[in-house]
Amino acid sequence: MARYPDDLDRWRRAARISAAAREVGSAAAVPGARRRDVAEAVESYIRSQGAQPAFPANLSRNVEAAHFTPPPDDEQTLAKGDLLKVDVGAHIDGAIADTAVTVEVGGAGRHENLVRAAKDAVEAAIAKVRAGVAVDELSRAIETAIHARGLKPVGNLSGHSIHLYLLHAGKSIPNVSGMSTDHLEEGEIIAIEPFATNGEGAIENGEFGHIVRFRKDPGPSDPVVARLYERFRTLPFTARWVDPADRPALAKARRVLQTYPVFVEAGGGLVAQAEHTVLVTADGVDVLTRSDA
What we know:
Blueprint: H1 8-28, H2 35-48, E1 52-53, E2 58-61, E3 64-66, E4 83-92, E5 95-104, H3 112-126, H4 135-147, E6 152-153, E7 158-161, E8 172-174, E9 189-192, E10 195-197, E11 203-214, H5 223-232, H6 247-251, E12 257-265, E13 271-273, E14 276-280, E15 285-287
Antiparallel strand pairs: 1-4, 2-4, 3-12, 4-5, 6-10, 7-8, 7-9, 9-14, 10-13, 11-12, 14-15
């Protein structure tokens, strides 16, 4: 018997909010805008709709593929022609949705092929989704769509299954074929997120991206850290969300925190991303994060 999430309506609401937040971020990404203001616009919108950010708004640009969110004092601004990945997510009591789009700031059109490659790839993979399908069919569809535009998929990034309060659950959806023997199951919620590049087709770790998460319960020894764990559990968060008076305690808690480096393209290539959260059904797919879902 197929097993769907206990409260599927909660997941759908989180997905609708995530899709709208993605559009808020895209609209705010104009030349001269501070990345911090764009991130806070996205996160404020999510909270205004009765949800919480599932992770800090990722606003990675150009050679950055993922995991950059602005620190509290960030003053960096967007420039015309920047290739900005707007990767956002909302959760309602742990029901998570995750979605992304790539915006060329200022709409110059210089990187249209990259942007379209990521969009083509996510749609090609979605077209393959159904209960029982091999994950490798999705990966091959992603790879083929990106190669068709003369570009490379990022081979060491992948989509993922999503569970309650767990953004990256056990199953991966690779962006290149030959890496998975899994099959999709009816009732699963997965995020499909192709990355296309004109570089080497791989990412490497860059500098700290200002995102952390608790690896385990830190215990009661530091009441500030215990309170932060109660608030965030194992979901990613950032110092921007923490009261300035509590940030020193957070800095001392590194032993119980996982830190996220920015992923940068290994060959210095530009990177575009597209992502949807979908529900696997018996005979197809329900794309939860479409703007009109």
